[in-house]
Amino acid sequence: MNKKINQTINFGPQHPAAHGVLRIVMELDGEVVVKTDPHIGLLHRATEKLAETKIYNQNIGYMDRLDYVSMMCNEHGYVLAIEKLLNVKIPIRAQYIRVMFDEITRILNHLLWLGATAIDIGAMTVFLYCFREREELFDCYEAASGARMHANYYRAGGVVRDLPNEMPKYKYNKWQSKKMIDSLNKNRQGSLLDFIWDFTERFPQKVDEYETLLTDNRIWKIRNVNIGVIEPDRAIALGFTGPMLRGSGVAWDLRRKQPYAIYKKLNFKIPVGTNGDCYDRYLVRVEEMRQSNIIIRQCVEWLKKNSGPVMVDNSKIVPPKKDKLKSNMEALIHHFKLFSEGYTLPVGEVYAAVEAPKGEFGIYLVSDGSNKPYRLKIRAPGFAHLAGFDEMVRGHMLADAVSILASQDIVLGEIDR
Amino acid sequence: MYDILSNFFTGDLLHVVWIGFLSGCIIIPLLLSVAYLSYAERKVIGYIQGRIGPNRVGIYGLLQPFADLFKLVGKEIINPTRSNTFLFIVAPVLTLAPAIIAWAVIPFDLGMALADINAGVLFIFAMSSFGVYGVLIAGWASNSKYALLGAMRSAAQTISYEIAMGFSLVGVLMASGSMNLQKIVLAQDGCLINWFVWPLMPLFLVFWIAGIAETNRAPFDVAEGESEIVAGFHVEYSGTAFAVFFLAEYANMILIGVLTSIFFLGGWLSPFKGLPILEDLFIFVPGTIWLFVKTGLFLFVYLWIRATFPRYRYDQIMRLGWKVLIPTTLVWIIVLGFMIKFEISPWFRV
Asked: Taking the model in full, what pTM does it have?
């Protein structure tokens, strides 16, 4: 009789469940995974190196493209690092806007995660339900920043412009009936804040809708409960953050543990799991969507009541108002300097981190006093998670590898950088 | 029609031509309904998911199946390196052929069957078991690891679900006392109370679940397992060869729908037969239409299930088959034996 040899298969880079361009060389004994070896780097774009050749503000756009489903959170991490080194205090309204968009981003990310995970496990309807809600949040992005995904909205010193007082509306056309357009425009009559408020009113019911399809579904449960269990101490040792860590029962959330922006003033809960399996991570993320919704409502309430500047009044880092350029000599000089060579940071190094939807997104910035970063190191949460993949998946079946990978919420944009 | 043909052919030849003609009468509508089942699937699932589904080709997208067909036929059949070409081409044929042959014994109305044979149930069972060979050979001949995994899963799944299906049919045979499909339907004569679905409810559910598993449809589509093993056994197939697999899958779906209607929902019988007013109201509906309505109901449930449920894991399917479905059938066969012995009305009167 022949000696039994394990089979090695190539999971990806073009695999429906690879979440982008991940390649995993997987050793299988029948269908049981013996060993996995994730090969990353297929989406390597040299962001860190590229950042060293660009002035500070030009790098914000690259941050959007790292984890391309939690855009504004990445921007927040980067501008936070710059602000920390510059030691500027940004206006309170800008902080509220940032937190509001961070939480919108969190919902965006978790919705994509939920849809993608469901489709990986075979429930394809949830995916389209999630995308239905994502559309409206992208409209918020678009109204504020002009772009639906890669917003480029945060700046060192605040946000680039205040929230619009009017939501863009659908125009009447010959393909859609007047009634349909009117119903589409129904919640767009007021400002962006009214639109977001209307969304937060409806969103909890939508989450209930996803949960009726999944949470108590027997098939969903047997596919997720006790799959990919990670103990709390191992999760900490592997550098897990975000829902991956909280799913194991460790209540670690930077929004609470190292508060930035105005999270200290906000009222929200940190959901934690108990078993550290895929199902707990699912529950944690679903609850986080509900909590984010609560945070957004608090921000909208504050923003509706209070107005004020959204950028610091410091012409060394923020361009002056356009109307001043014609009459004011200093304004013209500042404008020219900022748009030709940008601003410089004092010599030093800084680490700033935000609680991105996937975990701790950190920026380690070294400045040599010039107008470009000397070194920009990105701490992407997904990288540590993927490194723990082998440990989580050993002994499980091939189909479980898919659900574990999905529960890690992998985005190769930030891992390969 | 027979008279017209008899002008041109005589003797045995006439017989062969006549059978060919009748087969055509089954196969062509069958392939058309396969085409429109795929259209219905996309539309139904589309609306479930808050989309519209195909609506560009023809009015309401009604020509979409043909657009798909022409696209697939126009594509190259790529033969993977170091695969067994003969088996590679034969496999889809081996899948489609049994799915169509099984239709020979289906009675569409009283006396409306191509072959009214006494062992009809056995014939259908044999044919539906045959289908797995196509899948197995496809997986083996593709020389691809994903295809092999899919074939392995499919083989294991079919074997275990065939048993559950067989046992649930034992109940039908006991209740009707015949293997002839027409006689099974006639044994359910009467209004919808008389149908076997009531005394055989657990067997009906087992048969239906096993039927979904037999056709490799969600949530039992582990052989395809789109997100795990990409497309399973037909990952290497393209063009016409893929289209043939596709046809076979949908023809099998319709077959299971029709069989469930025949075994448990009284086939072509009207649900209102023997009821005072309703019978007269629906007397104009021919039996064939009733059969199609019942089949359509099951096909809709197929699509509904696909849109709703996540996929089982391969070993979990085995567990469901062996530990839940087969014991259920065994228990119910005994219960059914007593029901027949004590002549429970209205189903088992002598």
From this structure: 0.88
